[in-house]
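2 proteins. here.
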Amino acid sequence: MTASINDVAQAVGVSASTVSRALRGRPGVSDEVRDRIAAVAAQLGYTASRSASSLASGRTYTIGVLVPYVGRWFFGTVLDAAEQVFSAAGYDVLLYNLGSPETRKRFFTKLPVRKRVDAVLSLLIPEDEESAALRSLGVPLATTVGGARPGFTVVGIDDRVGTESAVRHLVNLGHRRIGMISGASGPLHWTTPIDRRNAYLDVLAEAGIEHDPALEADGDYTVEGGERAMTELLAASRPPTAVFAQSDEMAMGALRALRRHRLKAPDDVSVVGFDDHELADVVGLTTVAQPVAEQGAEAARLLLRRLDEPDAEPPGHVQMPIRLVLRETTAPPRPRGPQ
């Protein structure tokens, strides 16, 4: 016979309601008890009835997730972490990959998530009309990109502070020719490249370094783009002695370009990235570490909390910690004439 919720409760020594809260990821259950309940439920083969829960609560037990690029490392990492939290709480994920303008326009015109999801996690930055459309769904909304937005809980980092720490590190090492590989052609309405570029320019001005447009190149937030951008910077009449890349993937592309030109980091060019990608330590990349997976998990937890506590005041903005991680790709410039 199929095990019931009462069988699990009796085996663990708790009430059926406690079993229900634990398996749905709801508050009020300690981690120890939650783990014990999950283990016993798996052992007995108990699975909560989705249809019964939906009828009782009026929920779909589905979360809509909007992404601009499902194949990019940042978005994939956020999505994976969020999905794990949703899954542990008994929710499915309905994924919409809105990378092209046509797909995005069609989604916001038809809003196929209406009455199909209990909440929406948006990993793209909606414009005003798109934000209004999402708010009209009447469900909790969260995002891990962009700044504060009415109706959304935003989990993110301070892009300016992170960039300032990276560029100041290069300035403090003695570099004066500091280039930047940006992501100007990133997702639609993405503010991250703008915020990081402004911080880069501010630090240069603060250090009395004149900005040279020839030391900026677009890397498209990809390894291939970073390699292409670094090759462009090396072709400048006065190439940089150091480069800040707005993402680790572009920084890795920059390192590959240096190798192909028989140059080394940091002997010939220092390189700093941003993210602390899982391969950053492997290549010894100095970078600004941000908790990418944790942002996705926290956004998911906050959405579930809003579903469980609809009358509670949702946080408007949750800022996650960042830090500069020093590795082997940065050093003072070698003496070789004017920098």
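next one coming up
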Amino acid sequence: MRAVICTRYGPPEVLQIKELEKPIPKDHEVLIKVLAATAHIGDTRIRRADPFLVRIVFGMLNPRKNLILGLEISGVIEAVGKDVQQFKAGDEVFGLTGFSGGYAEYICLPGTVEPGTGQKKGMIARKPAHFSHEEAAVVPSGALTALKNLQKAQIQAGQHILIYGASGSLGTYAIQLAKDYGAEVTAVCSRSNIELVRSLGADRVIDYTAEDFTASDTRYDIVYDAVIKAKPAQCRQILKPNGVFVNNSRLSKMEEADLLFVKGLLEEHKLKPVIDRTYRLEDIVEAHRYVDTGRKKGNVALTLG
């Protein structure tokens, strides 16, 4: 099979396509023919070894041999292990890979997920029928990260939440999820993305290039820094006395139930992915180069099919 290998830590050019052996599923695993993946900021951080913790996990001086990046996938099950009951060959699925492995034509992932292991080892669910594989692939990491932040903040109907970085992957999902909870949403983004965030349900929009949102007279129940660029102390100035600030850190683990919850919202047309650009696997270097600019709107998909 073809796979994208991270040959060393560095710029996008360290990614190279290589022929590897097709994996064989274990008894509890399924073999998935990958039809779509994503160029995710998490993949670029592993590629750049930023933060340093990446080196502890994936290799100190260089990435471990034949490291395949790719946090998210969508595809078709080609074979199942003997202990797998809930999936069969031919099922269309999407999900998390457990931090790596998505940039390949095939991947083995757990068909049976033990509680607490899905985020680290990977987990899948059946793809909603009305979504393309590219649309499904860009959902898991962004939607689940946004969901875990809102869960941490204990969001409730009627609350007012400010989302900084509202036009990115996490922000676009956070707007929709917050609206589904019944919250009032103020989105912070650049002028060029105002119409996008409004189309997703934002009640109010602040153009951060023209206005300092941390100097607002409005007080919020929740401030979610989806890009981890705001100063927490300044954000706390715009919180209500019992308000909550969250920024993607110290989140509870993503569970299979969370993925199924998001799948339900997709099927009910309450959640939709935003895809900025789609690249072929062969153009992975260009895809990573674009994500590195920090200017993407929503998500960047990769097509393998």
